[in-house]
Amino acid sequence: MYGYYGYYMDPTYILVLIGAILCIAASSRLNSTYNKYEKIRSKSGMTGAEAAARILSYSGIHDVRIERVSGNLTDHYDPKNKVLRLSDRTYGSASIAALGVAAHECGHAVQHQEEYMPIRFRNALAPIANISSTLSIPLILLGVILGMYSSLVQVGIWVFAIAILFQIVTLPVEYNASSRALVMLQDYGITGGEETASCKKVLSAAALTYVAGVASSLLQLLRLLLLFGNRRSDD
Known about the structure:
The protein has eight helices and three strands.
């Protein structure tokens, strides 16, 4: 019963810890995999920026700029401004890891060009998801303060679920971008067989961080439902 444990100290907190462990493990695997293949130079000698330029050109995309952005693994595609931003570790590096990451971001650019349905749905959901992720926990906490039976708690849980939906929709978008990346790297003569397989390992490790994030959020949602979902039965 909620009254005995409080929101922050209760047996269901183990679910939060499991989620945190999953995220840490996925992040650790990504870092170790990236660091391993960051040390291996590609046979083509192309940098991440050069590989991205070739992929965009061969894909018929000529209105997307490629820019360097600071930070570690901060690579992303900005569809609004049509800018592909590559981090310092990717932009000027000719490593296998850099080529994989650059190609993945190009995969997103191709998705936008082709109006890939999952990414259109994700982009439409993004503004609502951003608000949901910001408001969900404050709403739940406010509901707890005002009383366990406050409807604010239930609203907060639903809002949190919307944020999770965005994460779930993101998964096929990311996996599709990676699949496109591997095909383009091979077809456009940027990587060979073994190198493409190595790029796949880097992108697979990156994808696991998204999976771990979804799993962690679902565990948090389960915790909220266990704490507050059956509150009327205790009335």
